[in-house]
Amino acid sequence: MNKIITYFVIFIGALYLIWSIILPFNQGPDEYHRYDVANFIYTYKEFPVAGDNRLYYGGYGVTYATNLSLPYLVGSLLMILFNSIFGLENVYLVHRLVSVMSGVASVYLVYKMGKLLKWEKSYLYFFVSFFALVPQFSFINSYVNLDAFTVCMIVLIMYLVLLGEQAQWKGIKYFILLGFAISCLLLSYLNGYVILPAIVVYLLISGVPEKRTFIKKACVTLGIVLILAGPFFVRNIILYDELFGMNTNAELSEQLAIDELKPSNRPTPFNLNLTLGEMLFDKGWIETSFNSFWAAFGAMNIWLSDKHYSIISTLTLISFIGVLLKIPAIYEKKSILEILKKYRFIVMQILIIFLTICLSVYYSYFSDYQAQGRYLYPAYFSFLYLFTLGIKEIINSKYRNIVYLILVIYMLYLNLYSLYKLIFIPFYS
């Protein structure tokens, strides 16, 4: 790793750590709920079971104990370790280190992936910097959640697949590493599963050498997943008669939630007989999800000024035009299969974006209206890749570097402005 990236990763780690220290507890969406699972393990030295009256259920009457996710387990172990050594009081800060470390790892893996894909140097530095400095990404890497870890696992899985492909899948180490990475992903955020069908499509398009040998080696990956992640799902089946505990949470919510938040009374767009179009446009799902993808803090109650969202929207439109302008050059009188194979990495990103949006829309429409950009973060890398690619395509090569620099400085400004002006001053002055 060269010195520039080394210093940048250190800077980003310090930035995310400062975010995590300054952000008051429970000023991230559902942080108390999520921390409650790790705190239960930390306090009672046992795994929680949904329905236990020692857990916190809140107004929705639900608990994240039904999905015993890996970040909560790691966080609880860190809390036990740090408390035994230092005797800390605010142990929630220790758990936040899981998100901080996930964010730093994501940034480093993006750099490694760009090197593997042989991105030109200026674009590589631009993408890594832009990826790291989006205010919402810094925010997500600063409190107890599953989003930061999920982004990291998605980037890691993509990187390992590219590594394996480059090595023509020789040897077994790539399959072993993928087994560990996929196991970690399965024990994180359900939305993150979108990477799995996207990877399958990518492999089908690219093709693999010696298919029978590849399938045999892939069974090693499957075996590792069954050994590492399988027991957690078996536990859910034994305890709740289901894999993910969603029905159990729905039953708890119906029993424990305040009246207006019970599933039977919840005013979802579907229950209100709104059309999908009315939810997306009239109710403002698209606008709110888009804006909060870039910057929305606290419990979705702290926002940038409208002018910044307007600037970002304009940049997104420009980048979209840039992507469209690239389409005619794609065809080059080649067959569809040749085009898909050549641009399979872009196809994978588009598929991840599509599946992620579909899941978020479905959840908002049928289950609980939540126009939150963090639900789109399984596609964080994918969206920013197309965003920056579009900028690259539409800007004349003579001016690209200066545009890259301006955009990175702008994101850094928004990041520091959000941390100081929107969080530090209101909570500490």
- Range of strand content: under 5%
Gap between N and C termini: 40 Å
Main beta-sheet annotation: 2 strands, antiparallel
Structural class: mainly alpha
- The strand order across the widest sheet is 1-2
- Residue-averaged pLDDT: 94
In percent, how helical is the residue content? 55-70%
Number of helices: 19
Approximate shape: globular
CA radius of gyration is: 22 Å
Q: What is the tally of beta strands?
A: 2
**pLDDT < 50 stretches:** none
Written as H for each helix and E for each strand, in order along the chain, the element string is HHHHHHHHHHHHHHEEHHHHH
What does this structure look like?
This protein has 19 helices and 2 strands. With 429 residues, the protein is mainly alpha-helical. The chain has a two-stranded antiparallel sheet with strand order 1-2. Helix 5 packs across helix 18 (380-394), helix 5 packs parallel to helix 19 and helix 15 packs across helix 18 (380-394). The longest helix is centred in the last third of the chain and has 29 residues, at 400-428. The chain is globular, with a radius of gyration of 22 Å. The relative contact order is 0.12.
